[in-house]
Amino acid sequence: MIGHLNLILRLAIWFLLTANLSVENIIIGVSIAFLLPGRPKTPEALKDWLRVLWETLVAIPQAYMEAFEIIFRPHNHEDVTMEQVKAGRTPGLIFLDIFLITFTPKSIVLKYHENGWYEVHWVRRRRKA
């Protein structure tokens, strides 16, 4: 059986993809959420989910600020860095971490390595020497 938070995440993704809250779509979404393969139930701390939710809310104005910054102050330097996954992350939380990194215009996750690293592409301003 899947955890409650993973079920909510799956349903939220379904409703965002379909943009339809009809009774038929809700039934289909719940069915798909339960039929998708899961993993053995692992304890997920509610505080981790609440922290990621807060980071998501903070990322929205940050994304707008970064977009305007790129428009008015061009960024001409690119970096690719490796960032370590926070300890004890479940697949649902890893998905949300990747979403947060990719949501902002200056960064995108290129690859998730199974040994616990994200490969992140950054666009930055290079300071004049």
| Helix and strand pattern | HHHEHEE
Structural class assignment: alpha+beta
How many E strands? Answer: 3
The share of residues in extended strands comes to: 15-25%
Distance between the termini: 58 Å
Helical percent range? 40-55%
Number of helices: 4
Shape type: globular
Radius of gyration: 18 Å
Mean pLDDT, nearest integer? 84
Tally of discrete structural domains: 2
Q: Biggest sheet: strands, sense, closure?
A: 3 strands, antiparallel
Unreliable runs: none
In the sheet with the most strands, the strands line up as 1-3-2
Keywords: Membrane, Transmembrane, Transmembrane helix
Protein name: Multisubunit sodium/proton antiporter, MrpE subunit
Transmembrane segments: 12-36
Organism: Allocoleopsis franciscana PCC 7113
Write a structural description:
Keywords: Membrane, Transmembrane, Transmembrane helix. The protein is α+β, with helices and mostly antiparallel strands and about 130 residues long. The protein has two domains: about 1-40, no CATH class; about 45-129, no CATH class. About 55% of the residues lie in helices and about 20% in strands. It has four helices and three strands. Strands 1-3-2 form a three-stranded antiparallel beta sheet, covered by helices on one side. Helix 1 packs across helix 2 (about 25-35) and helix 3 runs parallel beside helix 4. The longest helix is centred in the middle third of the chain and has 27 residues, at about 45-70. The mean pLDDT is about 85.
